[in-house]
Amino acid sequence: MTLTAGVVAVQGDVSEHADAIRRAADAHDEDVVVHEIRDAGIVPDCDLLLLPGGESTTISRLLRDEGIDEEIRQHVADGKPLLATCAGLIVSSTDAKDDRVATLDLLDVTVDRNAFGRQKDSFEAPLDVDGLDEPFPAVFIRAPLIDEVGDDVEVLAEWDGKPVAVQQGPVIGTSFHPELTPDVRIHRLAFFKESAEPLAR
Q1: Count of structural domains, the chain
Q2: Which of 17, 71, 75, 179 is catalytic?
Q3: Is 46 a catalytic residue?
Q4: Is residue 177 annotated as part of the catalytic site, yes or no?
Q5: Is 86 part of the annotated catalytic residue set?
Q6: Are 92 and 51 in contact (CB under 8 A)?
Q7: What is the pTM of this model?
Q8: Domain range holding 96?
Q9: Helix, strand or coil for residue 53?
């Protein structure tokens, strides 16, 4: 059976995420077709979905204007996996501390946008992630900070005592950009559920 994956393509590292999904699927001997999503009508056919980074106010507005927001909510309600990274995490939260962001309310977290600083403050750090045997080389770029977590949210990773990867049901959200490394274990964890070997390529 061929899986159908969707990468919401209104902003962000679309091609990098699409490539990571293909390589993660290949590591699990799965066939996958990846669609770039800019319009409504594609998400309902997707088995797995990715919401990349970018600018959260713009992403949330475009999702709402195109009617993709309700399709993403239904995707998660159906129990299908979603990986939301950086600005995708902000949009997926219940509270972005910014009225300009129309959140999807999929992760019961409060997020502080750009809490890790500006572009010049970007950094990479080895991150211990639940479900992974070895540290993940996490890339933080204008990363959001998760500063409140609901009772139903599992913290998968912390940096400097702050949550930077969380899971609630079929949704995983990360403050960092897993697509900016050749390591596809975060995509494997989100979409294929089993623990991945160190530095799977």
Answers
A1: 1
A2: 179
A3: no
A4: yes
A5: yes
A6: yes
A7: 0.92
A8: 2-192
A9: coil
